[in-house]
Write a structure and sequence with these properties.
Layout (H helix, E strand, L loop, with lengths): L11 H22 L8 E2 L1 H8 L3 H13 L3 E4 L3 E4 L4 H25 L2 H19 L3 H17 L4 H11 L5 H4 L2 H19 L3 H25 L5
Antiparallel strand pairs: 1-3, 2-3
Helix pairs in contact: 1-3, 2-3, 4-7, 4-10, 5-6, 5-9, 9-10
Keywords: DNA-binding, Transcription, Transcription regulation
Pfam families: FCD, GntR
Protein name: GntR family transcriptional regulator
Length: 230
């Protein structure tokens, strides 16, 4: 059997530009989701590029991505403008994440091995250490590692990818910079690990959904403070 033709590798410069575009999109997405960029605000190519220390090209590509997500709109002869973000939009995002996460949690509770549960316990202790030292970047990495291990234990890699894809709308810093959130997350993980050890599927699903309910409430409270809805 003939081997399939090899895909032509992207030039390094193209890869670098693609990575920059993703980083710019992530920054703008976070600013929109937290009310830093208000509805009706025009995002200027040159100003944004200068602020972020990049060229105009990755900003233009990032705006194209956000336009596809419905976060900005292109107005002829005026540029890209932030579209309204409603309370319902935020609730829908968290509903979708929670729905996928609960499905994964039910599968994890049935399939996870004792060794994988031990790994979760180790990862949660790493999260606890990061929270104790008030290190937001380390907290974000530890939290991501915990849920990645949990979701991989399901064997449902495609569904886990969809969850990760939706999770990019979460402005992580409002959680990782909150000591109260860190303590709450650690406690929820410990309860989940205990439930996994005895096969309490309903408890694992409930605790998983509770994390997303808590996340939605925290983001909505932040947006209420910014008077975004007004």
């Amino acid at each position: 059997m003939n081997a399939p033709p090899r895909a032509r590798a992207k030039p390094r410069r193209a890869l670098r530009r693609e990575q920059l575009s993703e980083q710019v999109a992530a920054r703008l997405r976070t600013d929109i989701m937290t009310g830093v960029l208000r509805p009706g605000t025009f995002i200027r190519l040159d100003e944004t590029a200068a602020e972020l220390g990049v060229s105009i090209m990755p900003v233009r590509e990032a705006l194209r991505t956000l336009r596809g997500e419905g976060m900005v709109a292109l107005e002829p002869h005026r540029g890209h403008v932030v579209v309204p973000l409603t309370r319902g939009d935020v609730e829908d995002i968290f509903w979708l994440q929670a729905t996928i996460a609960r499905e994964l949690a039910a599968t994890a509770a049935e399939r996870i091995t004792p060794a994988q549960i031990d790994e979760l316990e180790h990862l949660n202790e790493a999260l606890a250490e990061a929270v104790d030292h008030h290190e937001p970047d380390a907290i974000a990495s530890a939290e991501f590692a915990f849920h990645r291990a949990f979701n991989r234990s399901t064997g449902r890699i495609k569904l886990a990818w969809f969850l990760l894809h939706v999770a990019r709308y979460l402005p992580g810093h409002i959680y990782t910079e909150s000591p109260q959130w860190g303590v709450s997350a650690i406690a929820a993980h410990r309860a989940m690990i205990a439930a996994l050890r005895v096969g309490e599927v309903d408890t694992v699903v409930r605790l998983t959904g509770g994390e997303f309910d808590d996340g939605a409430q925290r983001l909505l409270a932040r947006l209420d403070e910014t008077k975004l809805w007004g």
